[in-house]
Amino acid sequence: MAWDEWEQLKTEAAKGRSTHMRLNQLAADPGGGSGDSRQGDLTVHQRDLAAIGSAAYDLYTNFGACSDYARLASMKAAGGLETQGFALGSALDHVAEHWIDQVQSLLDACAHISNHLRYTQRQHASDEHYIAGTISSISQLDHGFDERKGS
Questions:
Q1: H/E element, 102
Q2: Its domain of life (predicted)?
Q3: pLDDT tens across 108-119, in order?
Q4: Which of 17, 78, 130, 146 is the right S-S partner for 93, CB 3.0 to 4.6 Å?
């Protein structure tokens, strides 16, 4: 930027010509933010939770067993390569050691998902039972008030 240009910008700024900012945004959504007329964003069906929890449990069970075969085969191959003087053997052994940590992380995540979804199913069932009992009590009270008013 040349000196003359700088002086001109300072003069324009002093005259009150300032730059304005305009933020573009969507109109506020009344409700849950889903963009449609239904109330709420989240719908949970017990069979969906059960399917996800079951898949996580199956992955936990099957991957736990299969990953051990892969680790043992890799360690055996690493040992064979090392005894034959290949540097690749120690690298493969290093990978097999880190494989154990990665498998454990995945297994922990699957167990967490499965356990959390099982807890969520029980909690939703408990909430449904509580809500049904509360609504039933309210309708009984309404019926008593209606009888008292003579309706």
A1: helix 88-149
A2: Bacteria
A3: 988 888 888 778
A4: 78
